[in-house]
Design a protein that fits this description.
The chain is an alpha/beta fold. The protein has a single domain (42-165), classed as Rossmann fold. It has helices at residues 25-40, 57-69, 122-133; strands at residues 9-12, 20-23, 50-54, 72-78, 86-93, 96-103, 109-118, 136-146, 161-165. The model has no long low-confidence stretch (mean pLDDT 94).
């Protein structure tokens, strides 16, 4: 068991029946700096121009990583939250569907994607597609919790740097 696991609260039937939500709030409260250092540890930072944070807890983790490593920060938000021009990608997730957007980018850059939980992989795949269509080369994926029993992400050729694996 990873030492961080004792700080993660399991919330059954949230946001809907059958889902066990991993509440990282206690972990961030008690060990935030250690979490960010752990998530940043395996990334080849000389290959990264920007950190991309995925709404909403990915903002917290990604912004802290960008600050720690002296990189710029890019947000990926839910549809309608960013001013135009934006680029959009719709996707399926474990409890419905959604659309994500990011600001249109012209300059080719290298990025690391950051999020809190990788479940089915729908969100992460959507963000990877957004980046590909928007001149960002995804060089790394950094996830706090990888629910490996719900996805086969590394088997699809995309290695995931995760701190905790279930």
């Amino acid at each position: 068991m990873h030492p961080f696991e004792s700080h993660i609260r399991n919330v059954p039937d949230f946001p809907k029946a059958g889902i066990i939500f991993k509440d990282i709030s206690p972990l961030l409260q008690d060990r935030f700096h250690e979490v960010i250092e752990s998530m940043a540890k395996t990334i080849k930072w000389d290959e990264i121009d920007y950190v991309v944070g995925i709404e909403s807890r990915g903002f917290i983790l990604g912004a802290a990583m960008a600050t720690l490593k002296g990189k710029g920060f890019i947000v990926v938000r839910k549809k309608g939250k960013l001013p135009p021009p934006t680029i959009a990608e719709s996707y399926e997730l474990e409890y419905g569907s959604d659309t994500l957007e990011m600001l249109v980018n012209q300059k080719s850059s290298r990025v690391v994607l950051v999020d809190d939980v990788l479940a089915t992989g729908g969100t992460l795949k959507a963000v990877m597609n957004l980046c590909q269509k928007n001149n960002y080369e995804v060089k790394a994926l950094s996830i706090l919790i990888n629910l490996t029993f719900l996805n086969k992400f590394t088997e699809e050729g995309h290695p995931v740097h995760s701190v905790i694996n279930y």
